[in-house]
Amino acid sequence: MSKILIAADHAGFALKEELKKYLGNKGIRVNDLGTYSKERCDYPLYAYELAKRISEGKARRGILICKSGIGTSIVANRFPGVRASLCHNLKITKLTREHNDSNVLVLGSGFVKPDLAKRMVSAWMKTKFLGGRHLKRVKLINRIDKLIRSCAK
After folding, report:
1. Which domain holds residue 116?
2. Is residue 99 annotated as a catalytic residue, yes or no?
3. What does the mean pLDDT of the chain come to?
4. Is residue 1's pLDDT more than 70?
5. Which residues face 127 on adjacent strands?
6. Residues in Cβ contact with 69 at an 8 Å cutoff, skipping those fewer than 6 apart
7. How far is 43 from 151, CA to CA, in rounded Å?
8. Count of domains in the chain?
């Protein structure tokens, strides 16, 4: 059985709940990191928790949801080894796995309706990283990440 992390803010709560049920019905174990209601909250806290766990190797993949997807993407991509990709359609969802080996799928609940989100999640989970010339680029991303972190010390 696969395992995936999921987190959202208040604007993404309803979509998160639908995706949890959808993934559970497919036999995928979902670790919900919040939020647990539609009460207003701060998306950076949820994106932080999910991205931190991915970065630490506690999980391989995660899904983040907020109204636009932009804020959670910004937070998640600050963590080493996290390649969070904001997606709005099936084509880009597949490309982000094939070319970038993304490990966090970011959805904007204001732009992606539940039926499309389910198809996107399914495609993202099934699509394999192509490697080859794309592996070279992912390795470059990782090297740049290390350079930036060494400069910050």
Report:
1. 3-152
2. yes
3. 96
4. no
5. none
6. 86, 87, 106, 107, 108, 111
7. 28
8. 1
In the chain the first and final C-alpha atoms are separated, in Å, by 40
Whether the pTM exceeds 0.85: the reply is: yes
- Between CA 3 and CA 114 the distance in angstroms is 21
Catalytic hit among 10, 66, 134, 151: 66
Rounded CA-CA distance 114/129 in Å is 25
| Catalytic option among 88, 99, 134, 151 | 99
**Looking up tokens 């099936």, which residue turns up?**
90
Contact partners, residue 63, CB within 8 Å, separation at least 6: 4, 5, 6, 7, 16, 19, 104, 105, 106, 107, 121
Burial 131-140, CB ≥16 within 10 A → b, else e: eeeeeeebee
Cα separation, 65 vs 36, in Å, equals 13
Residue 110: which CATH number?
3.40.1400.10
Residue with tokens 């880009």: 92
Dig out the tokens for 50 from the structure: 């999910």
Phi, psi of 85, deg, nearest 5: -125, 120
